């Protein structure tokens, strides 16, 4: 029996510092004879139990590091996982996949239960190359360096050193001069770290290109589509880019005209393209934020609030901003504990309120899935599904923003901002996806060309209605603030795909609130071995990002905005 090394939010049932012991446990799986279907199913069960122990320990170490990037011991533990345990796992994962795929009983397993697992394993066997292990280790080292740089980034504000998220929050300020000042300070901060960001990204692009070449692909983009087992094609993505540009951007421009009129300005500048109509941030203390979100969740469904309150009580939320904390926000499952942890580094702002609600969508999904299906395995986790419930939660709580904005007009402003976010989540991630398509199919590009391409794509989408004169260089380098480009390449279009589904959840909710919430919960606990389309169907929506679907949801979004207006 392995000793449980207690932690306040995760369980460490395996000592990852004992590399030999870890390797022995993994190697023992390779020595098990598989002589029947039942042997194979038992072997898969044993493999899962070991891997979720390793996963929870590594996840806990990663969260520890993100919470405090400046602690030497925490960093050392995290780097040990990345530099020693991760290569070991990659080496043995390939051997385990081969053992499974070579079994004559694999194709006799129940297709509904094991079909997705089989397809994922077969693609991993196809992609694995021993020579890629050190490249992937180096990739992780560069991602860690990025987190350290961004975690330590500060800006001087009125004579005080402030964490970077604080300056970002000032973009929501009612005073246009304050927003403009914050914007220029952010760009100045990016300019200081730009040489480091360029060096990291230059190396990442080359590493990833070589990983793809080693695996027999022409470029990293094509490699990642196979690695992610996507249920749609590269061409589908390009069509989606065009459909949104054709049907969503014109509506976005009309909404920008409304905002420009309300602001009373002649030109719409980047610092106007923010949540800037509320008089004050929605909260000043994290405890106030948590009180309000709990109440909003409870008014939507008691189970939602129950999970949030449980997480709050058990130290599974870290929401405040502080120096040395990694940027961004995420929800991560803890498969042994059966819990989830929400990490966020946000200062008081409308965005941070919505971001917490977003992450609670992930958390509710994880808890429902765990209670119904047990721990989710890596191969079952598809972001097009996960993001459906996070975006869906945002929109289900849209009519409860009066908890933070009790004045009628200010509440309407907050709701409009929530819908503006829905717009931006349709085309913002798409522009990021297109940017990455370009980067990895043009791996010899220069840093200057990268900045120019980012600006060009931004103007096609998010900044289409914005006057960017004199800011081309600043906007061009602002890609450095998006951690997805560094740490999770090609994980971004999923936000746009799932937002189309989430808008359908909102449409259902406006027609029948109780039924929409029940369908949300049904889909969130669905069997993840199904196709994405089947899971969406259980949620009461369609997995469809064709031109008619994009056009219809764009029209619906405009209608909702008009209703609030």
Automatic annotation (TrEMBL):
It comes from the Bacteria. GO terms for biological process: peptide metabolic process; proteolysis. Its cofactor is Zn(2+). One of its GO terms (molecular function) is metalloendopeptidase activity. Pfam families: Peptidase_M3. Its EC number is 3.4.-.-. Residues 174-515 form the Peptidase M3A/M3B catalytic domain. Keywords: Hydrolase, Metal-binding, Metalloprotease, Protease, Zinc. Binds 1 zinc ion. Belongs to the peptidase M3 family. PANTHER family: PROTEASE M3 THIMET OLIGOPEPTIDASE-RELATED (PTHR11804), PUTATIVE-RELATED (PTHR11804:SF48). This is M3 family oligoendopeptidase. The lineage of its organism: Bacteria, Bacillati, Bacillota, Bacilli, Bacillales.
């Amino acid at each position: 029996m392995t000793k449980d090394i207690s932690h306040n939010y995760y369980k460490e049932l395996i000592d990852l510092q004992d590399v030999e012991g870890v390797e022995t446990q993994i190697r023992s799986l390779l020595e098990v004879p598989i002589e029947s279907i039942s042997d194979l199913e038992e072997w898969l069960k044993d493999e899962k139990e070991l891997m979720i122990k390793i996963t929870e320990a590594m996840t806990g170490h990663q969260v520890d590091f993100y919470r405090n990037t400046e602690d030497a011991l925490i960093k050392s533990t995290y780097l040990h996982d990345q530099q020693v345990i991760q290569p070991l796992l990659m080496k043995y994962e390939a051997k385990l996949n081969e053992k499974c795929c070579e079994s004559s009983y694999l194709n006799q397993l129940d297709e509904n239960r094991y079909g997705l697992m089989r397809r994922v394993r077969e693609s991993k066997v196809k992609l694995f190359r021993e020579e890629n292990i050190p490249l992937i280790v180096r990739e992780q080292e560069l991602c860690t360096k990025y987190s350290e740089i961004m975690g330590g980034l500060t800006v001087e504000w009125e004579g005080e050193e402030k964490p970077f998220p604080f300056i970002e929050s000032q973009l929501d300020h009612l005073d246009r001069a304050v927003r403009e000042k914050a914007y220029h300070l952010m760009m100045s901060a990016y300019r200081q770290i730009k040489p480091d960001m360029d060096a990291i990204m230059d190396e990442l692009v080359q590493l990833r290109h070589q990983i793809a070449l080693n695996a027999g692909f022409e470029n990293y983009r094509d490699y990642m589509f196979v690695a992610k087992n996507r249920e749609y094609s590269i061409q589908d993505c390009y069509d989606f880019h065009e459909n949104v540009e054709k049907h969503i951007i014109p509506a976005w421009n009309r909404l920008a005209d409304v905002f420009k009129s309300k602001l009373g300005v002649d030109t719409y500048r980047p610092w106007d393209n923010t949540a800037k109509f509320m008089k004050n941030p929605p909260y000043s203390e994290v405890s106030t934020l948590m009180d309000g979100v709990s109440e909003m969740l409870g008014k939507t469904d008691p189970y939602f609030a129950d999970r949030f309150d449980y997480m709050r009580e058990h130290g599974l939320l870290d929401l405040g901003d502080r120096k040395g904390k990694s940027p961004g926000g995420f929800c991560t499952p803890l498969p042994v504990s059966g819990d989830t942890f929400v990490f966020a580094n946000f200062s008081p702002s409308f965005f941070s309120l919505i971001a917490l609600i977003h992450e609670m969508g992930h958390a509710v999904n994880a808890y429902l899935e765990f209670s119904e299906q047990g721990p989710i395995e890596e191969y079952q986790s598809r972001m097009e599904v996960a993001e459906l419930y996070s975006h869906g939660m945002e929109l289900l709580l849209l009519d409860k923003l009066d908890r933070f904005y009790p004045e009628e007009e200010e509440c309407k402003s907050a709701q409009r901002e929530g819908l503006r976010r829905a717009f931006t989540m349709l085309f913002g991630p798409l522009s990021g996806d297109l940017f990455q398509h370009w980067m990895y199919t043009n791996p010899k590009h220069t840093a200057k060309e990268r900045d120019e391409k980012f600006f060009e794509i931004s103007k096609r989408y998010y900044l289409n209605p914005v006057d960017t004169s004199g800011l081309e260089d600043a906007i061009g380098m602002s890609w450095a603030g998006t951690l997805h480009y560094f740490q999770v390449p090609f994980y971004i279009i999923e936000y746009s795909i799932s937002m189309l589904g989430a808008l359908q959840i909102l449409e259902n909710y406006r027609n029948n609130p109780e039924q929409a919430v029940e369908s949300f919960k049904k889909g969130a606990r669905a069997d993840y071995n199904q196709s994405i389309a089947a899971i969406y169907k259980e949620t009461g929506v369609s997995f469809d990002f064709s031109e008619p679907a994009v056009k219809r949801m764009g029209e619906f979004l405009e209608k909702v905005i008009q209703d609030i207006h």
